[in-house]
C-alpha cells in the first residue's frame, strides 16, 4: 500500500468514527465533537493529497486546510453558544428531550 | 521512504484513532475531552509527518489550545442531571452504526481500487512559514479578509446567542 493510500484510509476511518459519534450520541456537545472529527478527517485528506500530489509547490492544500481550521473554530464557537443557550431554556443537553418542534 | 507504512505513521494513526473512538464512547464528558485532545495530538503529529510543519503547530494551537478548552467550558456550564443508568446512545443507534460502517466500507473500497493513489512519491517539498505568509498576503488576500470577517461575525454571534437570557431577565 502506498503512503497516500494509507493516509486516506486512516482519514476515512476517522471520518466514520466522527459520523458514528455524531449520529449515535445523545449529548449535543459530543455530537459537535463528532462533527469536529469529521472536519479534521477532511483536513488530513487535503494535506495528504498536497504532499503526494504532482505539484506540492503550489501550497493550495495547506492554504485550504488553514482556512478550514478557521471555519471549524468559528463553527465550534457558535455551536457551543447555541448549546449553552438551549441548556438555559430546557435544562438539558440531551437531544432526545429537545423535541418541542416535533410536528 | 519506500512504499511501506513507516513506524511513526503507524503509532500516530493508532493514537489518533484510539483517541477519537474513546472521545465518542466514554460516559464521563470530561474524559471524552481528554481523549479528544489525544486524537488532536495524533493528528498534529501526522501533519508533521506530512512535512506540513506550520499546519501541525496551528492544529495544536487552535484545536488543543482553543477548541478543546471551549468544549470543557461548555461541559462545565451545562452540567446535565441525567442519571447513570440512562443510556448514552440514542434509540436509533443500530441504524446509525450500520450507516457509519457502510460509509467506511465504501470509502475504503474506493481508496483500494483508485488509480490516483498509485503515483510515484514526489520529493520532499520544503515549505517555509515565509512562503505561506507571502502567498496569504498576495494570491489569497481576499479569502483571508473574508475569513477575518467570518470570525468577527462568529465571535459577535456567539456572544449574542449566549447572552440572550440575561437581556430577557432585565
Structural class of chain A: mainly alpha
The rough form of chain B would be described as globular
Mean pLDDT figure of chain A: 90
Shape of chain A: elongated
- The percent range for helix content of chain A is over 70%
What is the CATH class designation of chain A? Mainly Alpha
Instruction: Characterize the largest beta sheet of chain B: strand count, sense, and whether it forms a barrel.
Output: none
Arithmetic mean of pLDDT of chain B = 87
Instruction: Report the strand count of chain B.
Output: 0
- So, CATH architecture of the largest domain in chain B? Up-down Bundle
Helix content of chain B: over 70%
Query: What is the overall number of helices of chain A?
Result: 3
- Terminus-to-terminus distance of chain A: 50 Å
CATH topology name of chain A, in short, is Helix Hairpins
Major sheet characteristics of chain A: none
- Biggest interface between protein chains, with counts per chain? A-B, 75 and 88 residues
- Rg over alpha carbons of chain B: 21 Å
- Beta percentage of chain A is under 5%
Descriptive overview:
The complex is a heterodimer of chains A (103) and B (170). With 103 residues, chain A is mainly alpha-helical. Chain A is elongated. Chain A has a single domain, classed as Helix Hairpins, CATH 1.10.287.3510. In chain A, helix 1 (3-24) packs antiparallel against helix 2 and helix 2 (28-52) packs antiparallel against helix 3. Helix content of chain A is 76%, strand content 0%. Chain B is globular. Chain B has two domains: 1-80 and 98-126, NADH-ubiquinone/plastoquinone oxidoreductase chain 6, subunit NuoJ (Four Helix Bundle (Hemerythrin (Met), subunit A), Up-down Bundle), CATH 1.20.120.1200; 128-170. The N and C termini of chain B lie far apart (65 Å). The model of chain B has no long low-confidence stretch (mean pLDDT 87).
Amino acid at each position: 500500500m502506498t503512503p497516500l493510500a494509507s493516509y486516506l484510509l486512516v482519514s476515512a476511518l476517522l471520518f466514520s468514527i466522527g459520523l458514528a459519534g455524531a449520529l449515535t450520541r445523545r449529548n449535543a456537545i459530543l455530537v459537535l465533537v463528532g462533527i469536529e472529527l469529521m472536519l479534521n478527517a477532511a483536513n488530513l485528506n487535503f494535506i495528504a493529497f498536497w504532499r503526494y500530489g504532482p505539484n506540492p509547490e503550489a501550497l493550495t492544500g495547506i492554504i485550504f486546510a488553514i482556512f478550514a481550521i478557521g471555519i471549524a473554530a468559528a463553527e465550534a464557537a457558535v455551536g457551543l453558544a447555541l448549546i449553552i443557550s438551549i441548556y438555559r431554556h430546557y435544562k438539558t443537553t440531551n437531544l432526545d428531550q429537545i423535541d418541542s418542534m416535533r410536528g | 521512504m519506500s512504499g511501506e507504512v513507516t513506524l511513526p505513521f503507524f503509532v500516530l494513526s493508532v493514537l489518533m484513532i484510539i483517541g477519537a473512538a474513546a472521545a465518542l464512547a466514554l460516559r464521563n464528558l470530561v474524559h471524552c475531552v481528554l481523549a479528544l485532545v489525544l486524537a488532536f495530538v495524533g493528528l498534529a503529529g501526522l501533519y508533521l509527518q506530512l512535512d506540513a510543519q506550520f499546519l501541525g503547530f496551528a492544529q495544536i494551537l487552535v484545536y488543543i489550545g482553543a477548541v478543546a478548552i471551549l468544549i470543557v467550558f461548555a461541559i462545565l456550564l451545562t452540567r446535565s442531571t441525567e442519571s447513570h443508568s440512562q443510556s448514552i446512545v440514542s434509540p436509533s443507534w443500530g441504524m446509525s452504526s450500520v450507516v457509519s460502517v457502510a460509509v467506511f466500507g465504501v470509502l475504503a473500497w474506493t481508496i483500494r481500487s483508485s488509480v490516483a493513489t498509485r503515483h510515484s512519491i514526489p520529493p520532499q517539498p520544503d515549505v517555509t512559514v515565509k512562503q505561506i505568509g507571502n502567498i496569504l498576503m498576495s494570491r489569497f488576500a481576499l479569502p483571508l479578509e473574508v475569513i477575518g470577517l467570518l470570525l468577527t461575525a462568529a465571535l459577535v454571534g456567539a456572544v449574542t446567542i449566549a447572552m440572550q437570557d440575561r437581556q430577557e431577565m432585565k
